[in-house]
Design goal:
7 strands; alpha/beta; 11 helices; Transposase, IS4 family; 339 residues; metal ion binding; hydrolase activity; nuclease activity
Amino acid sequence: GRRVLRRSTCSERELPKSGPVRGARQRRDIFNKYRFHKRDIDVLERMMSPLLPDNGFEPWIILKRTQIRPTTPPRFPQDSLKHILMAIRYMSTNSFESEVGDIFGVCQKTVSNVLFAVVRVLDHPDVVARFMRFYPDSEQWCAKRAAEFAQQCKFSNIIGAIDGCLIKVQQPCAYGWQYFCLKACSAVNMVAIVDARGRFLYIDCRRSEGARLFEDGCTAPGYRLIGDSGFRNSASIVTPFREAAARDDERNANFNDEHSHARVVVEQAFGALKRRFPILYNVARPEPPKLQMVVVACVILYKIGVILGAQNGQPLSGRMLPTVPHPPPDVEALHVLNK
């Protein structure tokens, strides 16, 4: 018989390609909305589910006169994944709680309860101790951190870069003067220490004098932190020379250049943190006491993302840079820089 050739349509030719393309687009949309890939969100759910409330949260309804009251229906079942997604969505967009509630089909009060339940889990002392490890009094730990900095700069005894960051908040009605800063706005001060790879080692946003704890020789002998001119040059923190002293002395100018090259990692870490969670970049709406918990939660999530490789969707590379030996203990930093 006669052979009949069937002409394929345009949709049939594109059908095999649409699957991977659609899947890649969905994965990209999930990452843009929640700052984590699906497999990373599953890891967060397994880690945080045991610490979330077992009975869920009461459903709420909003009356016509904008009055909120609990209803008689039973509590909806525990859904830890939905709670985690609601909290991450709020912190990664800095949108209103009512808008997040419209996305997930709940009211603003439920979003508020879920948000701070998840934040309290991330702010748990055991969780913070698991991901924020800072042992300045351990010589073995300091030697390992100093070796990482020695691979990137000419300082051989630096264990971390310390700096402060202001997070703008809406001025509270009752005690707004307590959070008014020199930038002519209300803000919460955050002091953080990062390692040579930009991973947060220490964070403090609850006490304004937290940075003074490192100015009294708290590190192991021979090791120091590196900070800008906002800190006092002490036995624990290395600060740059003043501009007048570096203008006429080439050695001091070289020291400041290398100092800036080593300290920029903490500023890059702040920028990456605020870019990942815009609630820290724009004017935050939660009250300052609650915002301090949100800041810690964002840092913990950022640290988990670094460990899981959520920035680029790939796990952290196992390739290690060559180890740079330490110079003799009696050699000063200025002598090393001028070689």
